[in-house]
Amino acid sequence: MKTIIVQHELPDWADWYVDKLSDAFPEHLFRAAHTMEDAMALARDANAFVGIGPKMTSELVAAMPGLEWVQSLSTGVDNLLAMQALPVTVPISRCSGVHGPQMAELALTFMLALARRLPEALQAQTTGAWHREPQPLLLGKTVCLVGLGSIAETLALYCSTLGMRVIGVSGRGNAPHVDRIYPRAQLEQAAAEADFLVVLVPLSAETRHIIGRSVLDAMKPSAFLINIARGGCVDEAALLDALHRGSIAGAGIDVFEQEPLPADNPLRTAPNAILTPHIGGFADTYHEQCFPTVLTNMRTYLENGPDALTGAVRRCDAD
C-alpha cells in the first residue's frame, strides 16, 4: 500500500482529489493536507505528493524520506528542478496542456480593458464623471504571440474569431490560426507590427528578459504589452521606463520577477498598467481540468512504479 499526500491551499480541492483518487484506488491511502503544515505532519509516511509544485519547500521534501514521485498541479516546476533536497531519482510530473482557455481569456480581458480604458471608466463611475468617446475595436487589430505552444493555439483561435490578425514569434514553421510566424531573431520586427504583444514563452536562460528595452522601443506608441508567461521574461525596469515615457500605451501584467509583488513595487502605480496576482492559470474548474492527467499518472505509478511515468522530469535533467 502506498501513502499519497494531496495538498492544496483550497481545502475543498484537496478533499475532492482525495475522494476521487480513493474511489479509483481503494487499496492505497490518500491523505488531504490543507496547509503545508498539514503536509509536514504527514510527510514521514508519504510515498508520493500531489500539489502545487512551486509551493513545495526543501523542508517538506527533506521530511519525506520515502518520496518516490511528485505530481505537480502546475506546469512550472523550476524550484523542484533546482532543489538539492529532492533526490535525482524522484520523477516530477506536471499538468500541462490544460491552461489554454483561462490564459486566453485573461489575455483578452487585458486587451479589452486596456484598449477601452476600463480603469478610467471605473474611476469615473465613483466620481460621477460622464465622458463619451469612440471605443477601439479588437476587430482588425494585430496581436503578436511570443511563443506558440498550446496556450497560444487557444488564444490564436479566440483572436482570429474576433477578426484580429494573428502573428507569432517562434521556431515553428506554422501554427493554427496564425497568419505569419517570425523567427526569434526578428522579434523586434514582429513587435513593431503589433497592437498587442503577448508574452507566452516559458522562462529559460534564452528567454529571460526576452522583452527588453529594444523590443519595447520597437513597439508602436499605441501598442500594449501583455505578460502572462513568467515575470523573468520581461525586463521590468525597461517596462516601467516605457510606461512612464509613454513609448507604449500600457501593459497588462499577471506575472512578476518577485512574487508576491511587494506593496511598494513601482509597477503598482505605473501609468496605464493593469496588474493581476498570477491568476492566469487559476480557473474555478482547474482541479477538474487537471484530474485526467493526475488519474492517468497515478494509475501508472501505482501499477508500474515511478520509472514508468512518461513525460516526467527529474532534477538531473536540468543539470
UniProtKB/TrEMBL annotation:
Residues 31-306 form the D-isomer specific 2-hydroxyacid dehydrogenase catalytic domain. It comes from the Bacteria. Residues 109-280 form the D-isomer specific 2-hydroxyacid dehydrogenase NAD-binding domain. The keyword NAD applies. Coiled coil: none annotated. Keywords: NAD, Oxidoreductase. The keyword Cytoplasm does not apply. Pfam families: 2-Hacid_dh, 2-Hacid_dh_C. Belongs to the D-isomer specific 2-hydroxyacid dehydrogenase family. PANTHER family: 2-HACID_DH_C DOMAIN-CONTAINING PROTEIN, D-ISOMER SPECIFIC 2-HYDROXYACID DEHYDROGENASE NAD-BINDING DOMAIN-CONTAINING PROTEIN. This is D-2-hydroxyacid dehydrogenase. The lineage of its organism: Bacteria, Pseudomonadati, Pseudomonadota, Alphaproteobacteria, Rhodobacterales.
